Amino acid sequence: MKKVVIIGGGFSGIYALRELAKQSDIKITIIDKHPYHNLQPEVYDLIANKSNISDVTIDLPSLCAGLHHSYLEFKNLRVTSIDFQTQNIFTQEDEIVTYDYLILAMGTRTLFPTSIEGLNNTDDIKKLHKALFFKQSFETQLFNKVSDEAKKCDKTQIVVVGAGLSGVEIAAEMANYAKQFFERGNFICDNLKISLISSGDTILSGFHKKIVQMSNDRLKDLKIDIITNAKMTSSDEEFLYLSNGTHIRYSFIVFAGGIEASNLSTKLNLSKNKKNQIIVNGYLQTKEYPNVFAIGDIAQIKNKEGQIMPANVTVAKISAKCAAHNIVNSIKDKELKVCDPKLEGTLIALGGRYAVCDLYGIVQVKGFIGYLIKQFVFLRYKLPLLRIIKNGHKKLTM
């Protein structure tokens, strides 16, 4: 019986796991350093008090148990290296995991360029534990403003560096949260300002023009100060400095200036691009080893036209299912399938019950309707997982 190992319990890893679990005659092991699947797009809701930790995580042991596969296991381990020759995976816990087929699905992390001084002053809220720390720090400052409003009304300045999808969403969510906070409490000290820094001449570079305009209008309605054609050059304990010669006194800096592959990817002796994404062929196999596949954000994935696909949940889903299909076919000596991902659209949460959506590049909508579409798409992913972990929890606690 062949053994398939998945490293990474993110979106692509989960999609691959669910697809492989349909096969009863293979052994499956999924490895992650965390015992939960972090629903990263919803972390901003956690910061804005629209949800709690249980809403933005999926328990991986319960998920594996709920799939009712006789030869499926979850291992809560931190992978340190892989010997592709002997097909051994080495971990920080000194446990060695072997495989016949391997799926690399470690995802990406926020890129912190070494050329920028003072990045230790910034927050990376894509990671759950850091998002919780930021949430606590931000709410403490809001409480202090309310406590001292009769004496003084100091400005709270949040600077979001990076005007891509993550930067735009967090700026909008924080602005909307602050607006609701002060309106509901009728507090007079609502001197909070959010600045969004874009290195280009617009936000959301590369997105559909109509989506960019809709998002730009929404951010301005939320009174977010959009600064374009500027890069963060450095920061100290008081100011953030920009390439246009200006500086901003800040309370918090949220850094969303780009992504790079996970730390493990940098250690692997595989062909990679400048972002340390693993280069794969049309079947999602690595160049060096046909039994090693890479999927989702960790991989440089191209469509049939040769275009490199962006880091996107849709690409994660399609590549994961394709890799799982090809592994099963490889085991059964059947023909492999070329992966040809196509983007279904773009969904951008812009604070509260407001979102903009680009559906297949044909239809663009905004506002509450956009929010409903985004909720529908997310729940279509989340609800089946909730049913699985509920059954898994019952199984584990019987």
CATH-scheme architecture of the largest domain: 3-Layer(bba) Sandwich
Number of domains: 2
Number of strands: 24
Query: What can be said about the biggest beta sheet?
Result: 5 strands, parallel
At CATH level 3, the topology of the largest domain is FAD/NAD(P)-binding domain
> How large, in whole angstroms, is the Cα Rg?
22 Å
Mean pLDDT score: 89
Tell me the name of the CATH class of the largest domain.
Answer: Alpha Beta
Approximately how much beta-strand content do the residues carry? 15-25%
Biggest sheet strand line-up: 5-2-1-9-20
The percentage helix is 25-40%
Helix/strand structural class: alpha/beta
Ranges with pLDDT <50 over ≥5 residues? none
Question: What's the end-to-end separation, in Å?
Answer: 29 Å
Identify the overall geometry. globular
Write the layout of secondary structure elements.
Blueprint: E1 3-7, H1 11-20, E2 27-32, E3 36-38, H2 43-47, E4 57-59, H3 60-66, E5 72-76, E6 79-83, E7 88-91, E8 96-98, E9 101-104, E10 108-110, H4 128-147, E11 156-161, H5 165-185, E12 192-197, H6 209-221, E13 225-227, E14 232-235, E15 239-242, E16 247-249, E17 252-255, E18 259-261, H7 263-267, E19 278-279, E20 292-294, E21 299-300, H8 313-331, E22 345-349, E23 355-359, E24 363-367, H9 368-397
Helix pairs in contact: 1-8, 3-9
Task: Summarize the model shown.
The chain is α/β, with parallel strands linked by helices.
What does the model show?
By secondary structure, the chain is an alpha/beta fold. Helix content is 33%, strand content 24%. The chain has two domains: 192 residues, FAD/NAD(P)-binding domain, CATH 3.50.50.60; 138 residues, FAD/NAD(P)-binding domain (3-Layer(bba) Sandwich), CATH 3.50.50.60. The mean pLDDT is 89. It has a five-stranded parallel β-sheet with strand order 5-2-1-9-20, covered by helices on one side. A four-stranded parallel β-sheet has the order 13-12-11-17, covered by helices on one side.
